[in-house]
Structures are given as C-alpha cells and as structure tokens.
Amino acid sequence: MTLAYPIPNDAALEPPAEWAELRGECPVAHVKLPSGDQATLLTRYEDVKQVLADPRFSRLLNAPDAARLSDTDDGGLFSSEMAAIIPDSGEEHQHWRRLVGKWFTAKRMSALRPQMARIAEQLIDEMVERGRPADLKASLGFPLPVYVICDMLGVPAADRERFSYWSDTLLNLTKYEKAEIDAAQAEFFQYMSDHLAAKRAEPGDDLLSELIAAGGPEDGGLTDLQVLVTGMALLVAGHETTANMIGKMVAMLLADRTRWERLLADPSLIRTAVEESLRFDANSGFGLPRYLPEETEVGGAVLPKGTTVICSMAAANRDESAFAAADQLDLTRSPNAHLAFGSGAHSCLGQALARTELQVVLEVLLRKLPTLDLAVPVEELERLDGLAVGGLRELPVRW
C-alpha cells in the first residue's frame, strides 16, 4: 500500500497516528507526493540520521528521475535553479558554509542577544497596547525573526511584508500557481540585485557587505550570483522557520500550563525547554527530501539508484529507541540529540540564530507576561496547510 504524503492530520500539536505504526512496522515506506510521484519515507531516528549525514545524498531534486514534490514543481524550494547556485556538496559547499557560517557562530549570537531582547520587548509592548486576545504569531513570532535577519543582511525591515510574500511563494507547495511563483521570484531576485548594488556602493556592517568585500572566487570569495542567492536563501530560511517555531513552542508550553508554571518557577530550564520543543514539534512541515545517486541500503531495505527519500525528522524525534518516553514533553531532557536542524554537512546553518531567538522569546515572555495563556482550547488551534515548513495559522493568547 502506498500512503499519501504529507500524511493528513488535523491536530495542530499532535503527531499523526501513522508515525508510530510506520516506525514499528514499515520504517522505509512508499509514499505518493502531491505531484503524484513516488518517494520513500523514513521515520526512524537511525535511518533519518544516516541519510541526512551522508554527503553523497543531494538535496537537489533536479535530476531527471527525481520526484517532483508538487504539481507546480519544476523546482520549488528544493529543486529550483536558485538552489543549484549555492554549491550542494564537497569542498565548494564547505567553503560556502565557512564564509557564511562566520555570521552564525554562537559567539556572534550572544552579541546579538540584547538587541533581540529589545525587539521582543517592543513587540510585546505593542501587542499588549492593542489589547487582548492577541495573535502571538502575528504580533511577535513573525516580526521578530524578520527584524533580526534584516539587520544581519543590512536590509530595511520596512520591506518585510514583501519578504513574507516572496518567502511564502518559495515555501508553499500548494497555494500558488506557477505564474505567480515565477513573478514573485523575479521581483525578489530584482530586489536583491538592487540591494547588493547599493551595498557595493556603500558597504555596511552586515553579512552581505562582508561577502562582497571577500571578493570573487579568485580571491576565495563567492560569485556575484552566489552572494545574491545566499541573501535570498537567508531571508527565507531566517524568518519563516523560526516565526512558525515561536508560535508552536509557546503553544506547546501553554497547552499544559503546568509547563509554563514550571518555567516561571525555574527560568534556568529555558535552554532545555527550547531544545525539547524542537524535538517534540509534531508539525514541522514536509521533512527533508534527498536524492540517492546510487543504490543504498537504509533500514534493512535496498533503495535503488534514483530514489527520492523524504526524511521525517519530526517522526524520528519521537522514536522511542532514541529518546526515553519520547511522546512526553520533558523540560529537563538532556542530552537531547534531536534532528530538528538535520545532521551532518547539511545541518541547518542558522541553528545558533534560531536557538537564540527562541530562548530570548521565552525569557522576555516569561518576564513580561507571566499570566500568558491560550485564548482558545488547544483543539481549536489550526495548522497551516501546504507549507514546506509547518506552523499554526494563528496563536490566540490572553494574559
């Protein structure tokens, strides 16, 4: 039997029942994607980690026999020409990560913390002024990461509405027609070209200015096109994922308010609470596709060359063989080797940024709004549909 994927699920914070069944009985499963193409779904921790950590497996789904993810998919986020511009593997990919990764070190993130906290406080003050109930996702979850990534790229935060739309067209697998996606991407591309031209004329203290200053490939830097696509990729990756995670994390902590009370009593648990929210997230979106350029054995099954594999990190993060009491949210869980940021050479470049933003949001919320609570029953929270990145439609709160 071939399952439809993504697996339908109405519960905003709970995993589909099929995950546990698949891990137990069919960890290497055949699935049918929205495009109608076949792929292989992995749900066990060891298998997902093996595939994600293997540098031979490409995230580029532009091979002629790779599965298309959606109907409009002559590309989309995972296989577009844009994705092909940033080197995907080998020494070139490591070089790109070293150049860009300098901006995402834990040390740099610590330096950004006070500014992040100021932004979070201002957004919360504005939310309180507008009165309750409020949508925490729209008031805090969405704007905070956009302001932060705009700062890092030297991009005017006033343009954030446009980024949100462009980013949605890149990340939504079902919502837009191809013509609309193409037009949005052309606008985004033009915007970034103009922005980089301005940075060349007047460099600032930001990531893009530094990448330009590093020179071209002959100087050990990147091509102009690579700098441009890096800027676009970071704007998209830097806001949509974290914006959705802020909403989901707060929802998880308020769904059983004893969790929130525990953090109020002991804020030293914020760090482990963030990690556990990342592990426990049952609504993380599509998962990571990988293309197998050669025959490979995974989980005892031989997968032929040309297979497209979907790694469900969220299902793997609920694997009892990797996490004791995996279906319990444990605010003190440590160590916590979850796969929310992937694994290996392609693990998420911005994970230190995401972790810092999530920690800062919790610190500031606990301090400023200790009485925070959900304004609707958990059962009424709705999932966002179609996004490559999972999220809640809104998070109504009161205080």
From TrEMBL:
Pfam family of this protein, just one? Answer: p450
User: Which InterPro entries does the entry link to?
Assistant: Cyt_P450 (IPR001128), Cyt_P450_CS (IPR017972)
Keyword tags: Heme, Iron, Metal-binding, Monooxygenase, Oxidoreductase
Source domain of life is Bacteria
Keyword Heme present in the record's keywords: the answer is yes
**Family designation:** Belongs to the cytochrome P450 family.
What is the protein named?
Answer: Cytochrome P450
Source organism of this protein record: Nonomuraea guangzhouensis
